Every structure is written in structure tokens, then in C-alpha cells.
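Notebook B, p. 112. Complex prediction, attempt 2.
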Amino acid sequence: MRIKLNNQTVQIDPRLTLQILLREYHVPETGLAAAINNRVIPHSSWSSTVLSEHDEITLFQAIAGG
Amino acid sequence: MTLQIAGKTFHSRLFTGTGKFASGDIMANTIQASGSELVTVALKRADLQQKSDNILRHLHPLGVQLLPNTSGARTAKEAIFAAQLGREALDTKWVKLEIHPDPKYLMPDPIETLLAAEQLCALGFVVLPYCSADPVLCKRLEQVGCAAVMPLGSAIGSNQGLTTRSMLEIIIEQATVPVIIDAGIGAPSHAALAMEMGADAVLINTALAVSANPISMGKAFKLAVEAGFLAYQAGLGLKSTHSQASSPLTGFLSETST
């Protein structure tokens, strides 16, 4: 099924969890936040969040700022 | 004397930003020279293709309190979203609430800020709101539960100093939470003045980062904040409209000419 990861369309297996997807992309679990369809998913829920068709996942990280 | 914010003790009353530095190393060395124990960061969409220099690699060894900001948010809803991202990315409930939709002056939207502050405080965040130097707004932010208020000295990055001075004096007089003067402080003398006025802390970014020698400037600001705070604690003399002689007004010169 198709989802979007940081605006990139990606083909994934159904019933994939957010945690497994991010591990496949070597995304570190610390220093990063994830939102699905503009809803923030706490780290504690990554392993139990099953992705759905057309989900839009956005990842955020800390950068320099005042 | 230490500063308490939301149950955390700070030995330095100089807080710093991390923006605009030429490199991560310069940023880290400047923060260290400044003695700052609280440091702001921003958030952006992660770039999975490019491995950009991870700022946390430079900040974690310093042991500072990280304060993610909500810069980029134009509304309360966007700021709350950003705050939740910051909490997850940095494992902290602390947030610098900043909502400034106008890109020219970056003035904080007071209405969206108050709306967001109330909701974020209810959600358990430690909210440090960046706001205009409006005494009424600062009291409202305090009343909804903000851990401090952060009124601006002048426009972000302008280095103009405390153009809002008279309003800041009222805010400082009336506040029952720490007052951290944030934005526009361009020189150590501005920071010293802020502390002499009774501010609890100052937040500096641009003035450090754009200096030809940020590390030295960090030390200069550290000394200025310490000097200003000591002076405030020691008690400043009152201003007078006329002279107050420091030496006795004896006429000894005319007495010897006989």
C-alpha cells in the first residue's frame, strides 16, 4: 500500500508499524518527532501504531534557532 | 543567587539561542563561554536524504536545559503542534512559545500566544512565552499558568537594545513569575541594564552569533549579566536632577590666601 514519508510516496507492506518503517529508513529514535496526518505520535506508541493507506508521515528534528 | 523556573535551578541568568552561528563548534564554545544553562532550539522537517550536522551532538555534552521553540507557527493550533513535536523530539515539557506570522518585524501575535499558552499549560507544558512588552498581556500569561514571561526588548535580531524599557519596568514590577527579557539585546551593556532594572534573566542569540568573536562575546555577556544582577542586588543609587557633591564643599583654597 502507498503512504507518504516526508512528502515522498513510498510503497509499504500492509500492517507495517511506524517503528518498523522508520527502522527500515535508519531513522534514529532519539532527537526526532513523528506525526501522522498532522497528529504527533509519541515515541511510546511507535511500535503499536499500524500504518494505513495514504497516511502522511512527517518527521521533525531539532535545528539551530533562537 | 540562583534562579528558579518550574522547579529547576539555574546558576546563570544568561540564556542563549543557537541560531546564526557559523558552525556547531563555535556555537557550543560560545554557549560554554557564556555559562548559559538554558538554550533554545528550533524544529524543522527532517531531511532523510541528507545527513545534516545534528545540533544535539553539540548540545548534549554541555548538559544544558533544551528549550524547543515554536518558531514558524502562525497560529495557536500550529504552535501547539510544534510544542508537541518538541516534547517528543527532545524529551522535555519545556517550550518557548513564539508565534510571529509577520516576517518583517517578527512581532509576536498576542492573541494566538495567549490562546496557545492556556492550552499548553493545561496539557502540562512548562511554557515560556515570547511576547510583546505589554504589562496586561504578561499578567494574563502568568494567570493562565506560564512559568515565566519573555517580553521583547526590541525586534528579534535588531540589536537595538531595550527600546521597550518603560513597559519592561512595569512588567518587572508587577510580575510574580520570572521575567526573561528576550529579543533585541545587542550588547552586554543592554543585558547589564536589563538586570539592573530587575529582570530575572535575559535571552541572547544574534548579538553572540554575529560577533566577530562569538566566544569572547559570550564571556562579555556573562560578565555583564553578573554585574547587572549584583548591582541590582546591591542597590542602585537614585537619580537626581541636580548635583549631589561627593567631596565636602569647604572653601579651604580661599582660607589660605591671606
